[in-house]
Design a protein that fits this description.
The complex is a heterodimer of chains A (about 475) and B (about 300). By secondary structure, chain A is of the alpha/beta class. Chain A has 18 helices and 6 strands. The N and C termini of chain A lie far apart (about 60 Å). Chain B is about 55% helix and about 15% strand. In chain B, the strands form 3 sheets. In chain B, strands 2-5-8-1-9 form a 5-stranded parallel beta sheet, sandwiched between helices. In chain B, strands 3-4 form a two-stranded antiparallel sheet. The chains are: A alpha/beta (about 475), B alpha/beta (about 300). Chains A and B meet through helix 2, helix 3 and helix 9 of A and helix 2, helix 5, helix 11 and strand 9 of B.
Chain lengths: ~475, ~300
């Protein structure tokens, strides 16, 4: 039984579920305790002990059905060649059925768990050698596929692999012009939740430390006395004055014109998910005119909001986008009443449709802003082609990033938040953070895809013109 | 010797209708002395399972409600500083006479430190839920509710307690559980719980129950509600769950509604009846509308 469980665990690992040795021991113990009366109950036992995540349950069910279908040898006395034939027929048959099995998470009338008197590693070895005997056989490939699953020698699932297999790698680039489906599927929302929660996890530690540092201050005498009254005024517990804690402020300007709608969708979803989680965001959308959607983002379900935007109720979508005009009206309407020194994120392709550039407004915004980041879905080579003013606008920004996937987007935003926090941090921390950042090694796959310049872009206002 | 069917039966006497997965999980947790981590949408009876178990098994229930910022002082143990101080004050005369024998300061300090353990003994230890359940004479049921609300640090703190059933107190050493409690952790999944904690637990996902089970749950809680109405109402709620509401009605809402209907002495669901009582099942304004519309569609 141990061996069956071990092999099954290996199969699970191959399908991407992480199972620790301790958990497989649990499974064996559970099976021993509860007995293996039925397929249903065995499956339940294995699932209870081996799967520790809701999202893995469907994968488990598929793996279970696939794995325990193979052991259809009912007679332990059967001779080895017969066994082998049966196995191959079985496997081929199964290979054909594989497609049906995929989506099937119900119980099938399969056999019960069989103990390991049926088949042993030598058999498996022989099975494997079969492929070498007749490589010309047309069935060869299929057998190889099956045996690969059989071998039970899984590489440990690499975290990066899991990462890329996740639905997070939804391509922003994917054109959805054929069917303009503006709302988000539950999967997309879940994926975004996933990205954000991961991001939060990474950020949280740093944030908390900085928060603690920020809140330490001078002794609060009255509070300390109050607190230690019951200790006869012996100051066991010290109350400190809190320093003003600055919440990072973020202003997002998001282009919603058709040309970038595939990217702005995700930006909006990210904002929606981020909202109120740890920062104060004011969100604006624009096409030819600009409108604030902060309230709507926090009060409306994201899909309703997307539909409202798509119908052109907030900003008229039928006109051509004009960045120059948008900047001008943004300055008139909103720039004066932005609190603090927020960080700006502008998402758009900077295609101005040959209108007035009005780039001097950006300079004014820049003065108000702590930091300015431009996100564009276009590659660097196209930045100066046609009506694209990326080169002009870019020179006012601290950084211009190319984002193509949700993952890119979240990394960029995370990086920005880190920078903002670092900016607020205690001088001592600032130094440490800067050192930590310098020590980080960026490889070519990193998200600093700043077209060939190759320089790691640290947050440094002096470097803002040399992107 | 407990069996899975046995578990089901005694849960039934506790007023809880379990399905196979739940029964198996409880059975295994009892036999293997491992904690169960229960996840699922709110209101499907995660906490209810713990309560039912505690009454059915006659294990005293020790409940630890998690929240952001919970720490070992709130979960494991704490020293009673006030009491310690009070005692030193009250015993001042005894201490004086005890220490006056010593010749110099050094000796006095040594004498005093020899008695240090007096002040860090169990007398001054406040037992918080986890320690209390470990030290309980009877096997207890420790419910760690909504673990996802706590911080990562707290999760790490739980690891030692849950895998070895012991608590390390620096001044006293390691305290082992007298009787290993049955531990149930619940989570609403608002935060990913670390793999380290997951690994130490059996994992049980409780979703919305099947039709028959939900009807049975209603029947157990409200026996005077007639069978057809119970069925009709559960059926309606199951449809409402598919509506993509902001807060889908859960089992707890089913029970609330059943109670309302039995108070109103309803015999049949009508759109008006639903419209009058819709506040019990839908908790958002947009949801109210959708549910009322569904009622008109389905019931008239």
């Amino acid at each position: 039984m141990e061996r069956i469980v071990a092999r099954f665990v290996a199969a699970l690992r191959e399908s991407g579920i992480r199972v620790s040795p301790g958990e497989s021991l649990d499974a064996v113990q559970a099976l021993a305790l509860a007995g293996m009366e039925g397929r249903r109950s065995s499956r339940q036992l294995l699932r209870l002990t081996l799967v520790k995540n809701v999202n893995d349950i469907p994968t488990f069910d598929v793996a279970f059905n696939r794995f325990f279908n193979r052991f259809q040898f009912n007679d332990p006395e059967i001779d080895i060649s017969g066994l082998m034939d049966a196995a191959i027929v079985n496997m081929e048959g199964e290979f054909l059925n594989l497609d049906q099995l995929q989506g099937d998470d119900h119980d099938e009338p399969g056999p019960l768990l069989k103990l390991d008197s049926d088949i042993n590693p030598e058999d498996l070895q022989e099975l494997k050698s079969l492929t070498e005997i007749d490589p010309d056989d047309s069935d060869g490939n299929e057998t190889v596929v099956q045996i690969k699953g059989y071998r039970g020698k899984a590489k440990a699932p690499r975290p990066t692999r899991r990462y890329t297999q996740n639905p997070l790698t939804i391509e922003l680039n994917k054109s959805n012009s054929a069917v303009r489906d503006i709302t988000f599927s539950p999967e997309e929302q879940a994926a975004m939740q996933d990205v954000v929660s991961r991001m939060m996890l990474r950020l949280r530690k740093d944030m908390r430390r900085m928060k603690n540092d920020q809140s330490r201050g001078k002794l609060h005498v009255i509070k300390t006395i109050q607190k230690n009254y019951r200790h006869d005024m012996v100051p066991f517990q010290v109350a400190l004055r809190r320093k003003r804690r600055e919440k990072p402020r973020l202003v997002v300007l998001c282009d919603v014109s058709f040309s970038v709608s595939h990217a702005s969708r995700f930006m909006l979803l990210l904002l929606h998910t981020l909202h109120n989680q740890l920062l104060e965001v004011r969100s604006f959308i624009f096409n030819r005119e600009v409108a604030e959607i902060t309230e709507m983002l926090s009060n409306m379900p994201v899909n309703d909001l997307m539909e409202t935007i798509d119908e052109g109720d907030i900003v008229d979508l039928d006109e051509n986008s004009s960045f120059g005009q948008v900047f001008l009206s943004f300055k008139k309407k909103y720039l004066e009443n932005l609190r603090g020194r927020p960080a700006f994120i502008i998402l758009g392709d900077a295609r101005n449709n040959y209108g007035e550039a009005n780039d001097w407004v950006l300079d004014e915004i820049r003065e108000k802003a702590r930091y300015m980041l431009w996100l564009t879905p276009e590659e660097r080579d196209t930045w100066s082609r046609g009506d694209c003013l990326m080169e002009t606008y870019g020179s006012y920004c601290d950084k211009v990033e190319v984002v193509k996937t949700v993952e890119d987007l979240s990394l960029v935003v995370e990086d920005l938040l880190r920078d903002i926090y670092a900016d607020n941090a205690h001088p001592l921390d600032k130094k440490r953070l800067r050192e930590a950042k310098a020590a980080e090694v960026y490889d070519s796959k990193d998200y600093y895809t700043r077209g060939g310049s190759g320089e790691p872009a640290a947050f440094d206002p002096s470097g803002r013109s040399h992107w | 010797m407990i069996t899975e069917q046995g578990v089901k039966d005694f849960l039934h006497t506790g007023g809880y209708i379990a399905d196979d997965a739940i029964a198996t999980a409880v059975f295994l947790a009892l036999r293997m002395e491992k904690p169960i981590l229960i996840e699922g949408p709110p209101g499907v009876g995660k906490t209810g399972l713990a309560k039912a178990l505690s009454t059915a098994l006659d294990f005293p229930l020790v409940r630890l409600q998690c929240y952001e910022g919970i720490d070992e002082g709130k979960a494991l143990y704490d020293w009673e500083y006030g009491k310690q101080l009070l005692y030193t004050q009250l015993l001042r005369t005894q201490l004086d006479s005890y220490l006056s024998v010593s010749a110099d300061l050094r000796e006095a300090v040594e004498r005093l430190s020899a008695e240090e353990s007096l002040f860090f003994s169990k007398n001054f230890l406040v037992q918080r839920p986890i320690l209390r359940s470990f030290l309980s004479e009877k096997r207890s049921l420790l419910l760690i509710d909504e673990i996802d609300r706590s911080d990562d640090e707290f999760e790490a703190l739980l690891l030692e307690c849950l895998s070895d059933f012991q608590v390390s107190i620096p001044e006293l050493g390691v305290i082992e559980a007298k009787r290993k409690p049955l531990v149930i952790l619940t989570s609403n999944g608002t935060r990913m719980i670390s793999d380290a904690l997951r690994r130490r637990c059996l994992y049980l996902y409780i979703g919305y129950p099947e039709l028959e089970r939900e009807v049975a749950i209603v029947r157990v809680k409200f026996p005077d509600l007639c069978e057809t109405l119970a069925r009709q109402m559960v059926d309606f709620l199951r449809k409402a769950r598919e509506l993509n509401l902001r807060k889908a009605p859960s089992v707890s809402e089913t029970l609330d509604w059943a109670q309302v209907l039995s108070i109103l002495k309803a015999t049949k669901l009508t759109p008006e009846m639903v419209a009058n009582t819709v506040g019990v099942i839908a908790k958002h304004q947009t949801d109210l509308q959708k549910v009322t519309e569904l009622a008109v569609q389905e019931l008239s």
